Amino acid sequence: MGKKVSKRLQALLEKVEERDYAPLDALSLLKETATAKFSEAAEAHIRLGIDPKYTDQQLRTTVALPKGTGQTVRVAVIARGEKVTEASNAGADIAGSEELINDIQKGMMDFDKLIATPDMMPQVAKLGKLLGPRGLMPSPKGGTVTFDVASAIAEFKAGKLEFRADRTGIVHVMFGKASFSPEDLLVNLKALQETIDRNRPSGAKGRYWRTIYVSATMGPAIKVDINALRDLKITDVA
After folding, report:
1. CA-CA distance, 48 to 137, in Å (whole number)?
2. How far apart are CA 93 and CA 68, in angstroms?
3. 3-state SS string over 70-89?
């Protein structure tokens, strides 16, 4: 038996046609379908023509969302000496050295993003089993292993996100809140599209972009016209 669809979702599904929507129309519809009782996120689900089991077809990078994420990001920094003070002064919610590593080992996970300086990574490595499954392990590709902790903190608090293609070649990424204006969501979605194009894996063959759907957290999937999104100039929407 199939899953029972709620009346709320059934009504929303009837609003969405099975066709490619112009980007702005898709985002206006996303807002209309965000009817849950909480502040829903705007999500993009992008199927790419890559097979991530090959190292030259993997995609892992960061995107700076010009209009922010709409979320408060709690940043923790593992560093040493002056860098701990620098991190605190730059707005880190938590900053420390070995004692912070010990706290995390004991289960303290009161943060959304963990930044580490390169000299601390050998010690941070032992947290892999705890941090890895939660997607919190610092990595150079993710912009979270750096000596420039002040810039990294500022960027992640302002709307920088780390994302990767899953093992089936699909990227799932939140690109704002459903409460944003369609225009602001489009600016963020465009930044995401440009980042994915810029970081096209060297081994990607054939058609790179397969499909892109957007949705509110609890809303139906809305198909976006990929070519229209890629052809769009950001000056048209900013």
Report:
1. 25
2. 18
3. CCCCCEEEECCCHHHHHHHH
Query: Which pLDDT belongs to residue 237?
Result: 52
Nearest to 117 by CA among 160, 93, 162, 87: 87
Under 8 Å between Cβ of 70 and 58? no
Question: What is the phi/psi pair of residue 43, to 5°?
Answer: -120, 145
φ, ψ for residue 221, nearest 5 deg: -80, 135
- C-beta separation of 146 from 62 below 8 A: no
| Pairwise CA distance, residues 177 & 184, whole Å | 10
Q: Can you name the residues that pair with 213 across neighbouring β-strands?
A: 45, 223
- Stretches where the chain sits below pLDDT 50 are 1, 238
Q: How many residues does the chain have?
A: 238
Please return the burial class of 122, using the count of CB atoms within 10 Å of its CB with bins 0-12, 13-18 and 19+: exposed
Distance between CA atoms of 21 and 68, rounded to whole angstroms? 24
**CA torsion angle for 65, 146, 201, 215 (degrees, to 10)?**
-30
Cβ count near 165 (within 10 Å): 22
* pLDDT tens-digit map of 4-32: 678 888 888 888 899 999 999 999 999 99
